[in-house]
Design brief:
By secondary structure, this protein is of the alpha+beta class. It contains eleven helices and 29 strands.
């Protein structure tokens, strides 16, 4: 290759790299401007909790005491009387209105005796707790700053896309006004934090002290509240979607608490095997395992084995969708519910009532569907066992043994489980159980099981 051609090749390569770098940089959000404009809306929250301390009681030497040792311990432990010590914690928050309301996490201020807020301008002010919602891990505070404060703008977290740029501002490890940036790694994450898990996952650095701080989109709008991290995780943080939090924040501001809707059913996931047994085209929806007495669901005509596929016009694609949607429904609202019953679509109408702590719906989770043999031994319910489970003798049979290597064991059936129904038919005796299974060889019957206070469906392939 001639020197001239080598020169041109090098020139064009350098030009390409320059143009690529220029385009790439121009595609980045204006983080400098965003940080400057948004940092004043974010606050540092520090709390003080008084912890009772029990005094040290020195041992007594001998049955009648020993004056020498008693005097020594009295002098050595002098001043260590019963009292209290202070425990401190740090977190973040953000200002949502000109009245001085601040959103943070409930766990940041949990059991705090004193709450202080430090503004971006350095002022430290006492804060009043308006209310908290531990299920969503949200809390609302109020400060009196004496003047107008910079406030955030809320975005639409439903429109957030995986791969979209986001920026977090908070106080990790007490380092105030720290800015980190990254992308949305995933949406709809369930991490076991509570019944309404629906987290945004991001690789923007989130560390202890970031809790309660805002997650912004590239338009400078809050689309999440930074809440959780995975211990020892790198680039894995979680935020509550603002669309999930907004209604709760409004309720806390107006009433000091959150009121949720209640339907009155226990539900479980529909896997591939259950879908086949229920005559569904595919897995999905929420399978009703129990309808609570005098509940909105019972009054609306819900039945066991109904599969809820839509609630108030919103599709129920996964079992976890239903509790969130029902909870967000205003109390007293009449809603349309679509269910699949015996392979056919049925429309029901229910009036949502207020959820109490004791009446919250239970989501029962099953193991992934697996084939199974009938390696199960059962016996009739004793009067005592039936009474313990709020049943009557003849309403089921109790599993007394599961063959260790059987498919029944792999399907997570356990000794002590009570089999109530097989394919909708009550199983009241060992004979009923054997007859029902013998008629299902080569098939996957739908079995209703009671385990503790919960009912759930399972299915297995019955082999000879």
């Amino acid at each position: 290759m001639s020197r001239h051609k080598i020169y041109l090749t090098t020139l064009f390569s350098s030009l390409f790299v320059f143009l690529y770098a220029t385009v790439s940089l121009s595609a980045l959000p204006e983080f400098v401007d965003m940080a400057r404009d948004l940092k004043p809306t974010v606050v540092n929250i520090n709390t003080t909790t008084k912890v009772n301390v029990q005094p040290f009681v020195p041992p007594r030497f001998g049955g009648h005491g020993n004056e020498l040792f008693d005097e020594f311990f009295e002098r050595f432990f002098n001043g260590q009387q019963k009292g209290s010590r202070e425990s401190h914690s740090l977190g973040s928050g953000f200002v949502i209105d000109g009245e001085g309301h601040i959103v943070t996490n409930a766990h940041v201020i949990d059991r705090a005796d004193e709450i202080n807020v430090t503004l971006a301008d350095g002022r430290s002010l006492p804060a009043t707790l308006i209310g908290a919602d531990k299920k969503l891990d949200l809390a609302l505070l109020k400060i009196d700053a004496g003047d107008s404060l910079p406030i955030v703008r809320f975005g639409d977290s439903d429109n957030l896309q995986v791969g979209e740029w986001v920026m977090a501002i908070g106080n990790p490890f007490g380092l105030e006004q720290t800015v980190t940036a990254g992308i949305v790694s995933a949406k709809g994450r369930v991490i076991g934090a509570g019944p309404y898990d629906d987290f945004i996952q991001t690789d923007a650095s989130i560390n202890p002290g970031n809790s309660g701080g805002p997650l912004f989109n590239i338009d400078g709008e809050v689309i999440g509240i930074n809440t959780a991290i995975i211990a020892q995780g790198q680039g894995i943080g979680f935020a509550i979607p603002v669309n999930v939090a907004r209604q709760a924040i409004t309720q806390i501001k107006e009433t000091g608490q959150v009121t949720r809707g209640w339907l009155g059913v226990s539900i479980q996931v529909v896997d591939d095997d259950l879908a086949e047994s229920l005559g569904l085209d595919s897995a999905g929806g929420a399978l009703v395992t129990e309808v609570f007495p005098a509940s909105p669901a019972e009054k609306a005509g819900f039945r066991r084995r109904d599969v809820i596929v839509a609630f108030n016009g919103k599709p129920i694609e996964h079992v976890r969708d239903l509790p969130r949607i029902v909870a967000a429904t205003p109390v007293g609202e009449s809603v349309n519910v679509s269910v699949i019953r015996n392979g056919k679509g049925v429309k029901l109408r229910a009036v949502v009532t207020k959820m109490d702590e004791e009446t919250e719906s239970v989501v029962s989770k099953t193991q992934p569907g697996r084939t199974t043999t009938a390696g199960i031994a059962v016996s009739p319910l004793t009067a005592e066992l039936a009474k313990r489970h709020d049943l009557k003798p003849g309403q089921g049979v109790v599993i007394t043994m599961i063959a260790p290597e059987s498919e029944a064991a792999k399907a997570n059936l356990r000794p002590g489980d009570i089999i109530l129904e097989i394919n909708g038919q009550t199983v009241g005796s060992s004979k009923d159980f054997q007859k029902a299974l013998s008629g299902e060889i080569g098939k996957k019957p739908l079995i209703l099981v009671k385990r503790g206070d919960q009912s759930l469906y399972t299915t297995f392939l019955v082999e000879k």
